[in-house]
Amino acid sequence: MFELKQDWELEPRLRHFVLEDYTRAVPRWCPGCGDHAVLAAFLRLARDEQLVPEKTVVVSGIGCSGRFPHYVKTYGFHGLHGRPLPVACGIRSRRPDLNLFVITGDGDSCAIGTGHWIHAIRYNMKMTVLLLDNHIYSMTKMQSSPTTPEDHASNTHPRGNPLPPLNPLTVTLGVQNASFVAQTIDWNPPHLYATLRAAHHHPGLAFVRVLQRCPHYMPEMYQSLQQDSSRMLLLTHADGIQIEESAARLFKNKEEHEPSDLTAARRQAEREDVVPVGLLYHTESVKRYDLYSARGLGMSAAAKAEEVQSELNGFLI
Ligand code: SF4
User: Fold this and answer.
1) Could you give the angle at the alpha carbon of 35 between the alpha carbons of 106 and 281, nearest 5°?
2) Which of 26, 28, 35 to mutate to test ligand 1, by most ligand atoms within 8 A of the CB atom?
3) What is the pTM of this model?
4) Rounded-to-integer distance, Cα 124 and Cα 200, Å
5) Can you give the CATH number for the domain in which 172 is found?
6) Domain-located, residue 3
7) Is residue 119 in a domain?
8) Is the Cβ atom of 217 under 6 angstroms away from ligand 1?
């Protein structure tokens, strides 16, 4: 009879962590890449929340964002293209005790990984999923991704992308059992950090789309948003993402948005006049598959055998 190792139940030595406890190699992303800002927010969160490195896992797929686990001194899994979510679901199935983060990109999650993305949302297992959306396949040198804007010229579509882009927010909000959907921007560190923190505390799958700058291949993509903040809309609510007034002042437009209202969240996600920034949707009343799959964890082999036998006894004739 196989039995899961249970030595993970041993608690690591208690100590106080500083930023250096989470930093590993010097990031090799381009200067000005938004991934640096996301990494800085993650490191700060880890330090502020005193996440135990031995109890923290960062899973990534393929793309520039996929390098993330190499730069943090926690456990990491740099997986196959489009596959970080099934890996993370597997980890969560057997390890309810870990802090679990998934870093994926628009090419990774919204193309080859779409099936995994949709089902992971429905499974709603506790983890923080950061979709770093730079609207292009950057690691493979500028091919159109599913979120590349229509008419934008790339190496695969030199005369312009002929199709309208996929909207990761509306797709996620269209999946049954979605429980936390937010959007933030990499160039507003307080909002990015506050969103990451709220996602980490969410008891379910927290999906955060980060509008991420790629100055190398999409230099103009977010320039207008950065230069003219009236094109963004800060979603505010007592149950939403909380930032200080000094950071909120950077947004010219603000709107009270009730994050428990799914219809209103979908309406915000579909907007084309402004880019909504904040918590679009949040509920804690939908099911979590990890609570189901964790049943039996910690049982001894003998107890499991007894349980199985008692089930089989029901079929005796
Ligand atoms: Fe960042 Fe773009 Fe450079 Fe990749 S190519 S590291 S996404 S700036």
Assistant:
1) 55
2) 35
3) 0.94
4) 13
5) 3.40.50.970
6) no
7) yes
8) yes
